[in-house]
Structures are given as C-alpha cells and as structure tokens.
C-alpha cells in the first residue's frame, strides 16, 4: 500500500532541514566568535579570558568584553570568524573535489554492485587468494598489488581497486579506441609477475611500444613479426612442427591454417575438411622426418610425390599413409581440388620472409615454448588482419606456448607460479585458435591467465560460431564490457544480466483538505540497453562469477605514476619502428629510380 503524508508534515520536514542547515553554520561560527573575541581581548590587553558562552560571543560580544573597542570586536568576533569559516568551506570543497577526481569521474549507478558485493575482487580477499594460489607468496610479509591479480579499474565512484585473480579467465569486449589496450592490455603486461604472451595487429603507439622497454628489464623480449608490422629484426625462429610429431599435434597445426583462412560456418564443408586433412598428413610426415615446414609446399605442388607416404609408413603411421594414398590416387578432379584448397591454406609459407621465422636460421636462436613458460620473458606475436597463413603461424605459436605452460603446470604440481599471462588482443583477427573456448575451462586452474580482447560479441561468433562464443562467454569468470556496444541484442542481454531494481515514485494530489503525497515502488532496469550503448569512454561493466555486475572506472597506463618515463620509452620504440621502415624502403626506392 502506498504511504501518505499531509502538507503540514511536508512543511515540517522542510523546516527541520532548514533548521539543521542554520545550526550547521551557526554552531562553528559562534565557537569561532568566542575564540576570536578572547584572542582580540588578549592581544589588545583589554580584558580577561571570557567564560565559554559562544552564543553571547556571536550576538552580544560587548557583554563578554566590555573594555574592548567596538571595531576590534567587530573584526575579532564577526569578520574574522566568518572569513575563516568561508575559507574552511572552500578548502573542504576543494579537497572533496580532488577526492572525487582521484576515485574516478564515473559515478556509482544505483542498483549496481557496491563494495560489499564484490569483496572477492578487492584488495583484502584478492591478496588472501594470491597467498593460497602461489606457494612463493605463502610466507611473504607483504605482497605487492601486482602479485595479487590483474587490475581492471576502480569501482565507480570510489578508490577501491578491482582486480581479477590469477585463476580467473577473462573476455573483454570493447570497441576500437575505448581503452582496451591502454587500460587493460598494457597495465596487465607491465605488472605481470611471470611470462607474458601478447598477440596484436599493431606495433607503433600500441601495447608493443608501450611495454617492450619495461619488459626487457625483467626478462628477454621475443618478437615474432613475419609480416614486419614492427619491422623487427629476426633474432628468433620457432619450429611449428615440434608439436606435430603426433597425429593430434599435426591436426591442431592444420586446424590453425584452416581457422585463419575460413570462418567457423565454412569449416565443416567437404573441401575445407579434406584440405585440412591433407595438410595434417603432410605436416605429420615433415615433423617425423625432421624436415622444415616449407617442404610440405613441394609435396602439395606434386601430389604424386611418394616421399610423405614412405615417411609415414616408416614411422608406423600406416593408416594415415593409406588415407593419403587414397586421396592421391582418387579421381583427379577431386584430388586436385583438395590439394588446391590445402595450398591456399598454407600459401603464406611460399613467402620467404614469412617462412624464415619458422624454419632453422643460421646464427639465430630457436624459441622454445617449454623454456619460455618457466621464465619472465615476453613474447610479442604480430600479424596483420586477414593475414591468412601468417596469422595461422601466430595462432599456432600462441597455442604451443599455452600447451607448454599446461604441461609445465602439471609437472609443477598443477599450477604455474608465477602465473603466465596470455593477452590475446585482436584475437578474432590474428589469433584464431579453434578450441580456445574449450581451453578456457581449465587454463585458469593451471595458472595460465588468458585475456581475450574482442571488438564485439558478433566478431567472436564469426570465428568460433554461436556455440563456441557462448561457451567462451560462459566459461569466462570475468567479463569486461567497454564503450561502443552497438549490437542491440547483446546490449539487451547485458541489461537483463544486470537486472532490475526498486525505484521510488512520488505522486502528489490536491483536495479540499489540502495536498497529499503518496510514495510507491516500481521495478525498472538498472541499466537499460540504450545506457549500455552510451557508456562513456573510460568506463566499463564488469561481470564476475557469482557477483553483481559492477561499474568500473578504467585506469589508462598513461595516467599512472611513472607515465612520463613510459611515454618517453614508447616514443623511442615507435621512432625506432619508423626508422627501420624507412631504412628498408630506401634500397627499394633507389632501385626503382635506377630502373626508371
């Protein structure tokens, strides 16, 4: 039933509030007047210290200090106290404004998570959790914040830091230029306690340049840049066939070439499946015979070459050899179509510049994932959007690192300490690991922390299909949603997940007996879909398992302490990329001019 109150009750309430306001100003002013009057009398030597009567000091100062001059009393009991009170008020307002600025510009949203609702993500509990997860921290007297988890931001309207722990797995969906790199990827990389893997399609003025200087101080930095996004010097090579000496390993490697070339909706058709199978069989043969991966291109060009068949039989893979033989000796039209499909998937290996990163190189060190996961090194995997086979190699390398980390965790008792961080930025463009949604179900429990960053939910559906993206979403223990969500269905889904809350509605009616006011409660969406679409840059929604949705104020790396030094290092790294690009372009330009 609604509650009602008369107009006289409403008037009393307003009068009471006015009285409180007057008292809030009068009480300190009267006390300051009493103190000021005593100080004035003492300084002018015109009277003793008066008894404590603040009201009289404010209203009748001459009664307490009859010998003091009227002008002196006016200054000491009226002007000076009032000025001091105003000054204190201004100072309090400035301090409050600074406090609000320090705690973030984002205001708390009624109905969303308060501090008590997300305690497991705040300092006390996240630190206790870190002690239980990491044996190396068990007896530490103090634990640095970065050792407890990955900073996501501040709880809106507060200074409370919200962190995901080192057993969480996360998905971030944020539009371009909404802070996904500056507020999530870079801070996570800079503060990671263990090895870090980053995939990206950009280098200059991005996570690569912002972090490479800092990470080079804690371990070695490896850069795999087959398409020369950062124009990095080739100081490493990686053998993708190291994990392909089993049929499962070869199938996984072939699957990366397939996923990089076609969307999830097309991967089940006959030609795609058959092309992937042939690729898998040839990769297995090359791995067993310890050949470079580029040898498969010669076998794909000449299907009649019996070398892979002989290798498979010699190593006990008779059934696989029989499958390959059946395809080779099948109808020419079908065989040629299958082999052409496989050639298209692996076409990037024809590029000598790309192939050099995945074949043995003289005087260049081999990158070994098993060694990397026990270090504090950083691996930068760079590829252009739509890189085809090149992005397949990036995905395969990232997959190999995560599998090596899983194996190391099992040897270490079940969990890596310190944990390994995998920042899969632009994952839907350059790191299409087909079974990534399935890996999410166990990576966190191994101390391997993936953070997959997407531009939209639909982008994930395109790569992993509806079921795969739903599985990744469900398996993620932390989900971060930034600004720029323009998908109405997804925005409405988020709105429903945030839920409803009670809103007080006041209505007023007039009658002969006077005015009456009634108050009732109704339910409405805490954050409707249009409000989610209009999220301001620098804010994000956080959905953590078993907790209410929270509004976060993001914290970009360039606004943190030490940002000036980091910005200078980033600028130097970006300049170096430009210089390398110009140096490479100069010979080509001079050759073109000479030919002309």
Automatic annotation (TrEMBL):
At the top level, the lineage of the source is Bacteria
Whether Nucleotide-binding counts among this entry's keywords is no
Q: Which Gene3D superfamilies match?
A: P-loop containing nucleotide triphosphate hydrolases
Q: Which GO terms describe its cellular component?
A: plasma membrane
Q: Where found in the cell?
A: Cell membrane
CDD domains noted in UniProt: TrwB_TraG_TraD_VirD4
Q: Which residues form the TraD/TraG TraM recognition site domain?
A: 419-536
- State which residue ranges cross the membrane: 14-35, 79-97
Which keywords has UniProt assigned to this entry? Cell membrane, Membrane, Transmembrane, Transmembrane helix
Q: Which InterPro entries match?
A: P-loop_NTPase (IPR027417), T4SS-coupling_protein (IPR051539), TraG-D_C (IPR032689)
Instruction: Fetch the Pfam families from UniProt.
Output: TraG-D_C
Q: How does it sit in the membrane?
A: Multi-pass membrane protein
Q: Specify the protein name.
A: TraD/TraG TraM recognition site domain-containing protein
Instruction: Give the species this sequence originates from.
Output: Streptomyces paromomycinus (Streptomyces rimosus subsp. paromomycinus)
Which lineage do the record's taxonomy fields give for this organism? Bacteria, Bacillati, Actinomycetota, Actinomycetes, Kitasatosporales
């Amino acid at each position: 039933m609604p509650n009602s109150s008369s107009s006289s009750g409403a008037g009393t309430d307003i009068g009471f509030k006015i009285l409180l306001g007057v008292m809030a100003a009068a009480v300190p002013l009267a006390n300051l007047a009493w103190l000021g009057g005593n100080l004035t009398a003492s300084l002018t030597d015109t009277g003793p210290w008066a008894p404590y009567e603040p009201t009289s000091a404010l209203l009748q100062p001459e009664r307490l200090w009859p010998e003091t001059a009227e002008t002196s009393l006016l200054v000491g009991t009226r002007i000076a106290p009032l000025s001091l009170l105003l000054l204190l008020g201004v100072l309090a307002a400035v301090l409050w404004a600074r406090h609000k600025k320090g705690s973030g510009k984002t205001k708390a949203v009624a109905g969303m998570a308060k501090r008590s609702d997300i305690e497991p993500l705040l300092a006390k509990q996240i630190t206790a959790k870190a002690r239980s997860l990491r044996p190396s921290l068990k007896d530490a007297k103090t634990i640095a914040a970065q050792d407890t988890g990955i900073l996501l931001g501040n709880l809106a309207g507060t200074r409370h830091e919200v962190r995901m722990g080192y057993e969480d797995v996360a998905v971030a969906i944020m539009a371009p230029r909404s802070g996904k790199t500056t507020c999530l990827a870079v801070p996570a990389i800079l503060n990671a306690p263990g090895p870090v893997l980053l995939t990206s399609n950009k280098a200059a003025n991005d996570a690569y340049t912002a972090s490479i200087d800092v990470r080079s101080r804690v371990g070695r930095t490896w850069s795999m840049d087959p398409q020369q996004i950062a124009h990095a010097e080739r100081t490493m090579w990686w053998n993708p066939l190291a994990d392909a000496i089993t049929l499962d390993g070869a199938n996984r490697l072939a699957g990366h070439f397939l996923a990089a070339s076609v969307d999830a909706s097309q991967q089940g058709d006959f030609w795609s499946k058959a092309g992937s199978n042939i690729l898998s069989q040839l990769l297995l043969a090359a791995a067993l015979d310890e050949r470079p991966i580029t040898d498969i291109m010669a076998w794909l060009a000449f299907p009649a070459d019996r070398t892979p068949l002989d290798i498979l039989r010699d190593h006990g893979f008779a059934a696989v050899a029989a499958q390959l033989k059946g395809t080779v000796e099948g109808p020419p039209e079908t065989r040629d179509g299958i082999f052409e499909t496989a050639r298209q998937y692996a076409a990037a290996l024809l590029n000598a510049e790309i192939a050099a990163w995945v074949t043995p190189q003289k005087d260049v060190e081999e990158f070994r994932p098993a060694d990397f996961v026990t270090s504090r090194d950083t691996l930068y995997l760079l590829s252009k959007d739509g890189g085809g086979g090149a992005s397949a190699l990036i995905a395969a390398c990232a997959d190999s690192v995560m599998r090596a980390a899983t194996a190391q965790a099992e040897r270490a008792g079940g969990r890596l300490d310190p944990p390994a961080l995998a920042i899969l930025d632009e994952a839907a463009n350059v790191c299409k690991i087909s079974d990534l949604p399935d890996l999410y179900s166990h990576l966190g429990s191994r101390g391997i922390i993936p953070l997959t960053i997407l531009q939209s939910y639909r982008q994930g559906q395109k790569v992993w299909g509806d079921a795969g993206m739903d599985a990744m979403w469900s398996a993620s223990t932390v989900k971060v949603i930034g600004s720029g969500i323009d998908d109405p269905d997804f925005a409405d889904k988020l709105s429903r997940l945030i839920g409803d809350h009670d809103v007080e509605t006041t209505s007023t009616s007039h009658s002969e007996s006077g005015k009456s006011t009634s108050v009732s409660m109704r339910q409405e969406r805490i954050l409707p879909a249009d409000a989610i679409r209009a999220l301001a840059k620098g804010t994000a929604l956080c959905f953590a398992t078993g907790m209410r949705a929270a509004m976060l104020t993001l914290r970009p790396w360039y606004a943190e302490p030490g940002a000036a030094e980091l910005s200078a290092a980033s600028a130097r790294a970006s300049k170096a990329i430009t210089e390398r690009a110009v140096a490479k372009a100069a010979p080509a330009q001079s050759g073109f001019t000479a030919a002309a």
